[in-house]
Design brief:
With about 190 residues, the protein is α+β, with helices and mostly antiparallel strands. The protein has 6 helices and 10 strands. It has a single domain, classed as VC0467-like.
Amino acid sequence: MQVIPFQSLKGHFLMAMPALTDPNFEKSVTCIFEHTEEGAVGIVINRLYPHLNAKKIFDELNIPCGPEAKAVPIHNGGPVHIDELFILHGEPFHWDHLLPISADLALSNTMTVLKAIAGGTGPGQYIIALGCAGWGAGQLEWEMKQNAWLTTPCEMDILFDLPETERWRHAIQRLGIDPDQLTDTAGNA
């Protein structure tokens, strides 16, 4: 049996295959922000809480906010740690306690970054999410072998410029694949 060396998917998108019908991940795009042999963690970037915006979050945390910050949507980042805020963001990266994901992307969850966003001095591009997605040791690799996911490196335009409803289709198309032609059948070459 050939042993395949571990390959981290940190800084990649996971796009759900059509056969993945779990309501948490159906047609989802997840930005993986950490992946080691112990497991993986990411933020679903194409699901929004329909009746939740940043104003409600800032009010609950007693953070004053400007008019632009009030309307920022809140993403449903996944079914794990649903009471925790996560902020995927671009530059600048001068805040303490951020996790670099790639040269263009980091993850934060500090009050300092939230206050900067509320005051209009935060990162130029960001997503605020409640919750995250997580996989235990070997779980994501097993799901990949079961044909549950496609992967591609994270791309800032998909993450920040496209409407949430278009991210799954565009991320798959970047692989040169027509999402309408995907099959549920797994195979091994």
